[in-house]
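OP here, attaching both records as promised.
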Amino acid sequence: MKIIQILLITAIFSLLMPASFARDPLELPQHLSSAKLQGSGRLTWWGLHIYDASFYRVGSLSSSEFALDMRYQKSFSGISIANRSVEEMKRIGVPDAQEALCGRELTAFLPNVESGQTLTAIYSPRQGTTFYYEGKQIAQIPGSDFSKAFFGIWLDPKTSAPKLRTELLGQTCPPPLFTEAC
């Protein structure tokens, strides 16, 4: 039964199709209070509402600081979220050794989520990526390598959810962490 659940979760996330939606503003830490919503989207699979995602930029839309907030509409274990994240990192071309390290880091802190709960990741060049669960900080991973791999799941041009990427970025370029031409 456990294997069937894991396969179902994997299938759900591999065939994701986003749709637009409206979202309440994210409550960010004080030093990021100038963040503005850049875009949002809904991740669905065969009509199942998986999560709503909102992408915020701090200061201007060309800022290097940003946040990705996800409000889950289904329950998932932290391990299944970490495993799916690693699969998506592999899909966008993250090297095997880095992907394995990212997987260990995510597995160490990602909580189980229930419908209606949020996970938020904030990138700051000076601090790396800080994770929040229901508004409480749960982890901080320094450096840009992890950040680029993690946020690449949604923002890399090779994402498995290109429509969601477009909805998150709106009419602007990806953050400077992603060095693609715009």
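Record two, same layout:
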Amino acid sequence: MLPGIAVARVPAYSISTVLKSAPAASAMIRFYFHPTPNPAKVALFLEEAALPYEVVPIDTSKGAQHTPEFRAINPNGKVPAIVDTDGPGGPATVFDSSAILLYLGDKTGRFVGRPQDRPELLSWLMFIGTGLGPFSGQAVHFQYAAPDSPYALNRYRREAQRHYQVLERRMAGREHIVGEDYTIVDMSAWGWLDRASRVFKGEEQPLAAYPNLQRWFSRIDNRPAAARARRVGSDHEFKKVNDEETRRALFPSNYPPAGD
């Protein structure tokens, strides 16, 4: 971590304790985290901006995202989320990675491009948040969790490829996705393209078909903050076993509601 950044590691099920006991001065940002693509985007921003923050691990494979304490922060029960103890008018809660990036970008005045870039910045940020990311996630899900559905495998992997191709064409002759500067859009795309090997299961070089993206990704990935972002949460042992508890925690809509 950069000098002056205090990162506290908090057990996944101590959320209520953190909310009640952590003094506002202890950290500006409380970052609710699991090592997956969407939280990775926020980790990259926090490291790039050198904002003081503390990590609150949310072990989604154990169901920590469904506790009442976390649902008070994000009613949708997803990571990432943040509580900014120095928000406008008091502590501010923000969830959804795109919303968090926009909030932090506007708060700090950094990585949001020029005013004239705003329309494109919003458009490409939403393209990643509602297109490239979700279709990549579904491609991963069906290839690893439900590989017995040929239609779903074909549908989502091809849609992921299509979204990659849209971004590949965009990056022809460009260094950044929007404008002339490194922005939150680059951070958002980095979070997902970092998992291209899972999206395109079986490909030894998953970005080989996208040379513009490969060039762009290498530039972002070589930034010192990207290496630091990858280490966020590394001293917490998140559950890796894919058992019945994990499946019920990650895919609760596949099961009858409790009590039925």
